[in-house]
Amino acid sequence: MNEGVVVVLNAGSSSLKFSLYEGDAVLLSGQVDGIGVRPGVTARDGAGTKLAVPDLSADPPGTPAEALIALLPWLREHLGGRPLLALGHRVVHGGQHHDRPRRVTPALIEELAALSPLAPLHQPHNLSPIRAALDRVPGVPQVACFDTAFHRTIPEVAQVFALPHAMAARGIRRYGFHGLSYEYIASVLPEVAPDLATGRVVVAHLGNGASLCALQGGQSVATTMGFSALDGLPMGTRCGEIDPAVVLHLMREDGLDIAGVETLLYRRSGMLGLSGISSDFRDLLASEDPRARFAIKVFVYRVARGIGSLAAALGGLDGLVFTAGVGENATPIRAAVCDACGWLGVELDAAANAAKAPVISRAGSRVAAYVIPTDENLMIARHTRALLTGATE
Q1: 156-194 burial, b if ≥16 CB within 10 A, otherwise e?
Q2: Tens of pLDDT along 131-181?
Q3: pTM of the prediction?
Q4: Residue 347 and residue 17: Cα distance in Å, rounded?
Q5: Which residues have a catalytic role annotated?
Q6: Is 276 helix (H, G, I), strand (E, B) or coil?
Q7: Which ranges of the chain does DSSP label H, i.e. alpha helix?
């Protein structure tokens, strides 16, 4: 029985990605880029054919919320007479109380808005289309799916900081992110790599945002991101792990205020800061500039070191999975990470890696290495449908 179409939305600061799902089948997907500057829409149907899209130039949207409002009539046309079940949203931070998707209410929106300081690059933008839809189409159910929820299985000992105990009760603890991506990988391991599904696996979600997750039997037991999406690996523009005394030093010696520190650590650091060239890994891999090469070396070093740390948390390692934009496409980075993890038992098959094969480790490698494309939107669609049709609570 078909309960209707789920519209999946993932809003950023200047973009809005959207997909329409009937069951697990994609009816169409696309995005609005350049919001606030020169917005443009691209979309394809489920077969990958380009679709005619609305022209937003006459009244260009200035926010993802305005982009959604502008797209709603066009999206309704593409329902093809099918009922609209709900809007499903990616929300980066769900806090310590949400270990599963939730139906949107005004009270939930306010609760999630209070978490915006923990994910300033994401949370406000995730919530703006939710507010817009609540105002414009109040009768359409909405579901918030959290990137933090998958990590609620992490043991308490791995969640806490060595701060006064009362601070953990206030929510100052490790949360972890990219959970929808890790959840998808865990969901397909039984089919793609059944020998790993019940084992000890590190998943490397490597993209402009990057993190690692340790899976034990498909559940998250440790991850590199912590209280915010700033922690862990260096990323496109985010610094990753840093001695907190550096922040104190910059405030004391350079006179940086909170806004200045936030801009530095979130927007001017990472690959962009190290290279001085670009935050895009494709640009860095194509560059002969020594600083670009050095930035990549730092990234690989930190990824390999992080994998070693998570292998310790797991008590060993059976498999390594690369996913997300860099993990799925950057052959040289995968090769360098695997080489650096040779001591753990990873033996790279260079030809398989160059051919972008799903298995890139040699036959007989003690640790198997896979490349598995992630699908966060499908997870959101599944969660949304399940919640609203009573398949889960």
Answers
A1: eebbeeeeeeeebeeeebbbbbbbbbbbbbbbbbeeebe
A2: 999 999 999 999 999 999 999 999 999 999 999 999 998 889 999 999 999
A3: 0.93
A4: 37
A5: 147
A6: coil
A7: 64-77, 106-113, 123-136, 156-159, 165-169, 179-192, 194-197, 244-253, 258-267, 270-275, 281-286, 290-314, 324-329, 331-340, 350-354, 376-388
